Amino acid sequence: MRKFGFLLLFIVVHKSFSQESDFKNINFSRADLIAKTYQSKNLNDLNKLTSNLTKKLDTDVEKFRAIYIWITHNIANDFRLYAKNHRKRKRFKNDSIKLEKWNSRFKNILFKKLLKRKRTICTGYAYLLKEMCATVGIKSIMVNGSGRTSTMDVEDLAYANHTWNLVKLNNKWYLCDPTWSTGISYPEDGKFIFNYDNGYFLTEPKIFFFNHFPVVPEHSLLAPNMPSFNEFVEKPVLYAKGYTILSDHISPKKMYHEVRRNEEFTFQYLLKKEIDLKKVKFVFTNNVSEKTVKPMVSLNDSLLTLKHTFKKRGFYDVHFYLDNDIIATYTFKILK
Amino acid sequence: MKTTNTITLQKSSFTFLSLVFAFFFFSSVAQAQEITVKGIVKGNVETEIEPLMEATVYLKGTNYATTTNKKGEFTFPKKLKKGDILVFTYLGYLKKQIKINEKSSFMTVVLEEESIEMLGALNSNKRYKSKRPKQ
Lengths: 336, 135
Prior knowledge:
- Chain A is of the alpha+beta class.
- Chain A has helices spanning 2-17, 29-37, 46-54, 60-74, 79-91, 96-117, 122-135, 154-157, 178-182, 205-208, 229-233, 240-245, and strands at 76-77, 119-120, 140-147, 162-169, 172-176, 183-186, 191-194, 201-203, 212-214, 237-238, 246-251, 256-260, 264-271, 280-285, 290-293, 296-300, 303-309, 314-322, 325-335.
- Chain A folds into two domains: 2-235, C8orf32 fold; 247-335, Immunoglobulins (Immunoglobulin-like, Sandwich).
- Chain A is built from twelve helices and 19 strands.
- In chain A, the strands form five sheets. In chain A, strands 10, 12, 14, 15, 18 and 19 form a six-stranded mixed beta sheet that branches. A five-stranded antiparallel beta sheet of chain A has the order 8-5-4-3-9.
- The model of chain A is unreliable at 6-17 (pLDDT under 50).
- Chain B has one helix at 2-32; strands at 38-45, 48-51, 56-59, 65-67, 73-75, 85-89, 96-99, 106-111.
- By secondary structure, chain B is an alpha+beta fold.
- In chain B, the strands form two sheets. In chain B, strands 1, 2, 5 and 8 form a four-stranded mixed beta sheet that branches.
- Chain B is built from one helix and eight strands.
- The interface between A and B is large, with 61 and 29 residues.
């Protein structure tokens, strides 16, 4: 009986952490192949497009996968539209009539561009995903909220700036962010590069929350324990690669730390796949210099613990890297 | 006396029945008649109602579909019969389904805007850099 109880506990705990891994036994290669080879010049016939993508697939999760992969490999980010919308929304922030009028006009421009040129911004991605899912009977909803990246400050997060999706598969809700899965924009260089990131596909809610604060708490899938907005803003910066290798970021909970010299500091993570521990490193940066440091690394099952003792006074940005991929950033003030 | 009465009654009921039968027969012929459906699709753009270009019109449950031209007009490529359902879609507008009847040879369809807040945040993989306090 006790054994059984333990097993049950294990299943429950396991379930609450796993997301994409819920579908471990399903091979996505067929769905991926269909989605990656299917060409469509425009989106005029969404019904036919979706039907062609999904008709040879049996399960809802495979159908969803084909739709998701198609969108993220075919729809480009339009940062010009993004910039224009951002400017106007900021300007009309306190004028709801003008904001609504702008929203309606912009919506029209945006959907025309999506249909014809296959370019859009977040809401366009989320909308397209929702619509395509609906034509094959999969329920998906659009979630508005604050999306946080390394280049934003608190002011940028004060109002909703991003849209992502919840999708219901086998009677369970999952999170995904089709916009950020697609690639990265480089507005300074005027370009967008397709670079599919699987980290935002059916992500663990705890990890997803690092960069996604929904307007409606239930949409976080963490309710009733969703952290507050202040806790969200104070979290460490987590990068895309973190989504791929972590299933939880346990500690520290905050970005900013004040620590005494020669005091040991502990970082803890839950891994979702094996990594090469030799490639774990910290990079310390301040205004003038950059230094690579090897922390003390230990691994217990999937619990990764990093320890470091700061020797020198000063103010540092501490970046956690796995080889050349940045995972997270913290800031430290080291006192005497 | 009584018997004749029944006979007349049977006679009239027979006429009635055949009439009913004829009615159904002809109306089913009428039902089977196929109609070419033309129309125009509009939607509200800001506060005006304007034609929607490239709205999709499809026959429910099939892959028969067409899109509207610059003026929002369409001619459905397949002849339809009474009871068929046409679905009108356009991104950003609520889907509309319309059942075909005898009067459906020309239809004006107005789609309603779906209320969506248009948002967008760019993804970034740039390394975070602290803004240094002035010392």
